[in-house]
Fold this protein.
Amino acid sequence: MHPETFSALNSTLYMSFNTLGLSPSLLKTLANQHYIQPYPIQQQAIPAILNKKDVLGIAKTGSGKTAGYVLPILMNLQWIPSSKNRHIRVLVLVPTRELAMQVREVFEVFSRDLPERIKSLAVFGGVSINPQMMAMQGVNILIATPGRLLELVKSNAVHLNEIDTLVLDEADKMLNLGFREEMNRIFAFLPEKRQNLLFSATLSDDVTNINQFLLHDPLVIKIDSEEDNIDLISQLAYFVTDEKKGPLLRYLIKHNEMEQVLVFTSSVFSADNVALKLRNNGIEARSMHSKKSQELRSETMRKFKTGELRVMVATDLISRGIDIQFLPHVINYELPRSPKDYIHRIGRTGRAESPGEAISFITPDDQHHFKVIQKKMGKWVTMIDSDGINLHGF
């Protein structure tokens, strides 16, 4: 990107987010993280949360909802007196370990430049509880899966009676996965007077019921999914054999001078393999998946967002945490299993009124599945035969 263009975008960002009532330190971090303008849910949720209103936000994954509650929560915490040790102020309940780590990363990123230190921690099952108990020292914001949280409460490692703000993230999934009984037990530990923020992908009966007894005069925000609006996305597909996928990928990246490319694969092994072959052919690339450490994933995402990393190769699971507003290129190296996942993938580009390009590689075995995807999507994709492309040297 040209320096003058980048400067202009930063200026637009500052003015846009500045209207929401955020502090200069948060605006600085937004600029450093290349957030250009607030998503629709952020425009509505941030002022309401700053004013301590309850909020019910209905928005698909990838709609910007995490930053929509993280930013005002951090802002509000600056004005709340410190609590006793192990008495947390903010509790974020999530259904999975992966989401817990992703939410904690967002809190960590946006709290770095704050004048007052705010400590966040993610806790979840499947790992030893002892390090998490020790890490609870001085925590202000706890992101937790319900089962592990109850274990920590039982061990007196954390106290919930001074919570100022409760967030339920992806509440629809939590209820579907059978967390309702655990959540009721958690609610019994909470103070009656608190701010409640509930975010869900859909407004199901379960979410409606929990809204009725949990939220008080909430602001209800319903955002139509950007992933369903694919009109801004230019789609192409290439007929290609499995053995020619690698050369075709390298050809497209180099020949079209793509500078920021998100490549999707169907497995961890494939993601690592594709990234390795790109690096061996002079294209800076890294894989991004659940087997990587949190530190490595955070560093990879940072480099990709800032343009230091040209290509990121990701699996579907990890893609749920990818929030980049102006991503120009998405390539489906391997097709996802469902049409819904396909739309989610290509929806990473063509966002915030910015056009994008989505390319899919279609092998002979993929042709029927891709026809199903196109039919469900309601769009037919232009097909190109890669046999007409000279891939020699790629």
Q: What stands out?
A: DSSP finds 16 helices and 14 strands in the chain. The two ends are 26 Å apart (CA to CA). The CA atoms of residues 8 and 36 lie 10 Å apart. Residues 3-223 form a domain with the Rossmann fold fold (CATH 3.40.50.300).
